[in-house]
Specification:
The protein is an alpha/beta fold and about 280 residues long. The chain folds into three domains: about 80 residues, Orthogonal Bundle (Arc Repressor Mutant, subunit A); about 90 residues, Periplasmic binding protein-like II (D-Maltodextrin-Binding Protein, domain 2, 3-Layer(aba) Sandwich); about 90 residues, D-Maltodextrin-Binding Protein, domain 2. It has nine helices and ten strands. Helix 1 crosses helix 3. The chain is elongated and about 95 Å long.
Length: about 280
């Protein structure tokens, strides 16, 4: 329903409640012809006759009665929400997007511990590009990603450090990162960034070739493949669970909080900085 239909719905509701156009016009402060025109346009938009003449007044048709009750409920909900906002009792949900590894294994637990029980949270995960799309579409208010958003009107700030490591099945004591051609690698969505970051820091260059084995959308399933001895992977060590071991050098990677200028100065952004402060060492 567009704004014009909402205005016309209000005119229809006033007519039904007052019992006539003239009485409704006095209630909403418009001329009777303007109120009558809003009614007719509203009827055309819904495709039904909603009121009919009855004696000197007007009464609802069966279709009008159904719509009158629905519009009444909608206006009552608007009044309730407006009252809560005016009284300062309305808390919008914390809507945040995060890359899967950091979001699930680091951010989620910290948010659940810090948020009041009655404060709702919407945590969505996705690739960096998907998160940027969510942010631009207004589906989330802030995102946490492994690289900044270089695009107006968004701002970004490094808020945490995650450690990337070579992940192998338990029982393996050593691995030569220079013998990459002999290794079999388990990959996952957006593994390219993580692998490239680790290889650049450990080897000083990108390997010409790696042998790819299993590929999964999610990091958890990639770990299952590694645990089963089907290859190695490189991932945030915070996510590593039983049956896995971290080998070799750890590589630090910055994690960024991004959002609009207004959102980056909000209480929610300050909360995120606070709970992630322990992830900077």
């Amino acid at each position: 329903m567009n704004p014009a239909d909402l205005r016309r719905a209000a005119a229809f509701y006033a007519i039904a409640k007052a019992g006539g156009v003239t009485a409704a016009a006095r209630t909403i402060g418009k001329s009777p012809p303007a109120v009558h025109a809003d009614l007719r346009r509203f009827e055309r938009s819904v495709g039904a006759v909603l009121v009919e003449r009855f004696g000197r007044g007007m009464r609802l048709t069966p279709s009008g009665r159904i719509l009158y009750e629905a519009v009444g409920r909608a206006f009552a909900e608007l009044d309730r929400a407006a009252g809560e906002v005016a009284a300062g009792n309305f808390d919008s949900p914390l809507r945040i997007g995060a890359v899967p590894g950091f979001g699930r294994y680091v951010l989620a637990d910290r948010l659940l511990a810090a948020l009041p029980v009655k404060r709702r949270m919407v945590l969505r995960t996705g690739s960096h590009d998907q998160l940027v799309e969510m942010l631009a579409a207004g589906e989330v208010d802030l995102i946490v990603s492994y690289r900044p958003v270089i695009a107006a009107p968004f701002e970004c700030e490094a808020v945490a450090i995650e450690q990337l490591g070579l992940i192998a099945p338990s029982g393996l004591e050593s691995f030569d990162p220079h013998a990459l051609a002999a290794g079999r690698w388990v990959t996952y969505e957006e593994y390219e960034f993580v692998f490239a970051k680790w290889f650049a820091a450990v080897l000083g260059h990108q390997p010409e070739h790696i042998t790819r084995g299993d590929h999964h959308d999610e990091l958890e399933e990639a770990f299952a493949s590694v645990r089963a001895g089907r290859g190695y992977t490189i991932a945030p060590v915070e996510a590593v669970g039983p049956g896995l071991v971290v080998l070799g050098t750890l590589v630090s990677n910055s994690v960024y909080l991004c959002g609009s200028r207004q959102r980056m100065r909000s209480d929610d952004s300050r909360l995120l900085r606070q709970i992630l402060a322990t992830c900077r060492d």
